[in-house]
Amino acid sequence: MELTLNQQAISLAALMFVRGNASFESSLHDEEISALEVLKQAKAVVPGVVSSRDAVCAFCGLYRGPIFRSNEGLMVQCPDCGPFALDPASQRSWRLDDEWLIRKLRGALDISPHATVNQIIDGVWDIGRHKKRPVVLARRIDLVERHGLRIFHGPEPRSQSWVITPRPLVRAPLEPLTGTATWWQLEDRFALHGLALRLLDPDQGEKSDNVQDGLPSVAVHGPFSEDFTWVHLEGWPHGPIRLTEAQTRVFAALWEHRDRAQSSKFIMRAARLDSEKPMDVFKVKAANRDDPTYEGPRWAYNQLVVRQRRLGQYRLAWSS
Ligand SMILES: [Zn+2]
Fold first, then answer.
1. How far is the CA of 30 from the centre of ligand 1 (A)?
2. Are residues 21 and 46 in the same domain?
């Protein structure tokens, strides 16, 4: 159930649309970097504004340090790691062009490019009519829930709208707009097709594949889903935790060898990963701190993996 590059690209576009502001290229996973290339080609992203005063530390990824000029060129002073030469590439950041998204959605929904776009509130737009019903685009579903009165029953009523938002980062009630509007999740209902977006037919296979990918399937192996991409744990307030490909492999390897502690070398080889230690693929970059999407896997790792310090061996803390 690997996502195709185009699916990864629309997922990344959706994530960047939720954020609204620029994301540092250096904070993206390897798969996201490839997806970003697709978005660059589609002209969906624009360069973010780069700070010339400070930069995130290339070593710890935790602190920003001031940029200063030395004999060796531009340097960054991390409060923890000390000075190092600034890599200009680490300064690159990108933001999703909201107007690109609106333009492409209108294309996919056969909305005339001459129809007007109205911003209803910050982060929520009326982008035209599809099958005679209003189309509302919002950065997040909770914005729609919070401002429902204004959006659907304001000066211009928009009953039975199509509402398009990215898939929520945390679990939302299944049908928050029942009776008021039809909710379409951007990543599930639209596909990147060359330089355009295409509306997927919900009755075709494409959609059901996506749904399986997106829905947290039930715990099968201890707390893990059948394919190890989800972790179900009590105590995490944001619902099931979605893992990256590398994290999935580490947990699958730890699960397979759960009967005895293993060296990090053994686990990482079993996971077919180049990193040195299991924890390496669970680190959260500074830019993603406090984001449950990234913090969730790290929290799960801390709950589930025991490191026997003296021997440097790892095992899964799960009794079953
Ligand atoms: Zn540092």
1. 21
2. yes
